[in-house]
Amino acid sequence: MSNTSFFDEQKEQSLIKARIVEKYFWAWAKVIIPTAKKFDPRISYIDLYR
Question: Which end of the chain has the least Cβ crowding within 10 Å, N or C?
């Protein structure tokens, strides 16, 4: 069964999580980037929650 409207509207918990990630991503990145540059200049953020 395919739900084509799944991504049309964010639920409240998704909005809250997006705000948290937005607020803390750069603080996390500033810690991770110096170490990551030693191996590969790219970093990734993967969100497995839907």
Answer: N
Q: CA 34, CA 4: separation in Å to the nearest integer?
A: 40
In this structure, the number of other CB atoms found within 10 A of the CB of residue 36 comes to: 14
SS3 letters across the chain? CCCCCCCCCCCHHHHHHHHHHHHHHHHHHHHHHHHHHHHCCCCCCCCCCC
Q: Which residue has the tokens 């409207």?
A: 5
Q: Give the tokens for residue 4.
A: 């084509």
**Residues of the chain with pLDDT > 90: what percent?**
0
- Compute the half-sphere exposure of residue 33: CA atoms within 13 Å on the CB side of its CA: 6
